[in-house]
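Reopening: structure tokens for the adenosine-5'-diphosphate complex, inputs below.
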Amino acid sequence: MIPPSGSGEFDLIARIRARVRDRGDVVVGIGDDAAVLQPPAGQQLAITTDTLNVGVHFFAETRARDLGWKALAVNLSDLAAMGAEPAWCTLSLSLPESDPAWLDEFIEGFLDLAGEQRIALVGGDTTRGPLSIAVTAIGCVDAGRALRRAGACLEDDVWVSGTLGDAAAALAPWPTPRDALRRRLERPQPRVALGRQLVGLAHAAADVSDGLLADLGHICRASGMGAEIWLPSLPASETLLALEANDRVAWQASGGDDYELCFTAASSQRDAIARLAKELDLPLTRIGRIVAGNEVVALDALGRPWRGERNGYAHF
Ligand code: ADP
Ligand code: MG
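Re-run output (same inputs, fresh job):
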């Protein structure tokens, strides 16, 4: 039952609790001092936290539903990059005021995605303050099998899922709104199924949250390798291609918020990866290769190194 509109912290928590779905492995969920969870035998836990702050990660006017979706999506994207199966999450909300209608919408977006990915909301915290949302997500992965940033090997292929640059393009000042781009920014699809299938197939993986070159840079640093990326090979959506914008390549190579997976794999896996793309109905594009060194070099159509203005988003 949804409790009557109230203003207190406990009314808000009760509104959330009334809507969460159960999972058999939640021994104690919302309502006690801590959740108690039962991990499957032989599995390890992957744990990740991401915070969204108003004015930094999203505009104040962002719809509550989209915010709820995205707060969970960015965390599921990190679990996907580890090859983990989402299991449980917590939600810390800092809210400037008690607004039950806003909260209901927020929770609806959050639980839409939680239901899709079978992740249970098992606890959190609700406080007053500037609008800020912190989610912790926990996933399970067979012991010793998690995908890592470290592990890229010399001459591996570099792959990326989906398309790049839509979210960055959505932030550009277009004369007319581009709904397809906005949707990519506001409703990212974490590549959870792909991540799980990449276990045992990919050598290294990361999700593309800060920008392809920056995130591939993390893989290279962790692996003690360099990479060469072919800019003309970067996948773009039809919407993005139709724009013919000068910034397109920069958005694809260094724009943030794509939440695709970038991974490396031996060239002997090309057929398996092509089959996986078919099975998941998700484009998987070979965009470069791992080389010796410690740099990520992006090459244009003529094989000339390309330098963007920035390689990704950094807070400080
Ligand atoms: P405590 O004071 O013991 O930390 P709280 O009053 O903060 O307990 O929380 C009561 C219960 O509600 C706990 O189980 C907590 O995990 C849960 N909870 C609080 N806020 C949220 C939230 N935003 N989303 C989900 N669960 C929440
Ligand atoms: Mg608390």
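Residues 64-81 form the longest helix (18 residues). The chain has two domains: 9-142, 157-306. Marking as resolved unless the reporter disagrees.
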